[in-house]
Amino acid sequence: MKTLADVVQLDLVPLVAATLKEAARLTAAVEGLAREVDQLTAEAGELRDTNRLLGALLSQLGCPYERR
C-alpha cells in the first residue's frame, strides 16, 4: 500500500510538473500568436492609411479613384 507521501511524490509531483511544462508551452504559443495578430493589425492599419493617402493623392491629381 502506498503512503500519502508516496502518492504525492510518485503521482502528483510528476503530473503537476508536466502540467506546468505544458502550460508554459501553451503560454509561449499564445504570446507568439498575439504578436502575429498585433503585426497583422498594424500592417492592416498601414494599408488603410496608404490606401487613404493614395486616394487623396489621386483626387488631387484629378484622377478618378475607385475602391476595389
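(the above was protein one; protein two follows)
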Amino acid sequence: MSDYVEEMHDYSDTMKNFGKNISQMELKDKTAKQNKKLVGRYIREKYADGYSFYKIVKENKHTVRIQVITGIGDDWVIPYWGESSTINKNYALSNIQYRDELAKIFS
C-alpha cells in the first residue's frame, strides 16, 4: 500500500511541475507577443495523440530556429524536426496566428 501512496505523490508532483512549466511557457509567449517579438513565442505541431511544443529561439529574415519544449506532458519530438531545427518563418507565423485566433474565440 505504501508503494501506491508514493507513486500517487510522484504523480501529483509531476502534474504540479507540468502546470508550472506550462505557465512559464505561456508567460514567455505572452511577453514576446506584447513586445511584438517572435523569439519567445511557441508553436505547436500535432503529433500522435497530442502536440509537440517548440519555442522560437532565433529569428532570421525567412526562417526561425526552434527548440523543443520539455516538461509539459508527453514531450513529443517531431521526427522531421528533432530537438531543434530551422523552419520557414511563414509556417511559424501561421501556426502562431492560428493559436492566437483560437484564444480570441475562446476568451
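Reviewer note on protein two: DSSP finds two helices and four strands in the chain.
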